[in-house]
Amino acid sequence: MGLERLFSICVVGIVPAWLLLIFAPNWKWTQKINGGYIPSILLAIVYTFLILIFWRDSAGDFSSLAGVSRTFQTPGILLAGWVHYLAFDLIIGTWELQDSQKRAIPHAFLIPCLVLTFLLGPMGFLTYILLRTVWIFAVRPAKADL
After folding, report:
1. Complete DSSP assignment for 91-133
2. What percent of the chain stands above pLDDT 90?
3. Domain ranges for the chain
4. Could you read off the pLDDT of 103-124 as tens digits, one per residue?
């Protein structure tokens, strides 16, 4: 299988997990699939194989920006980096959902955070942390006083 095909499979294959987080957060299969980290585990397997196969072809290192740039010039390592993002962003999105449910944050407030986490990882995580902080310290105590 070519790297382009594997890229497409990973990108398209992860979309249903995100759709479950956004549109079916309380469905038992969302909890079983994403809560069990099944999609991220599958991506971790792909990542591991890519690293094992292509690492020796990489001429870079992680000691400088130039070294990192050389590392990701190897297409198999570039794909591994992208799969790494896909897996970890989904883990963060799953945590955001679980944490928001524990804190009774309305799901409508979470959806923008999930979309940002899917598209821009750390920005979505930061957005959720801000939402969570406002909810814990400003919104929730005000509701408790009523």
Report:
1. HHHHHHHHHHHHTT--HHHHHHHHHHHHHHTHHHHHHHHHHHH
2. 85
3. 3-145
4. 999 999 999 999 999 999 999 9
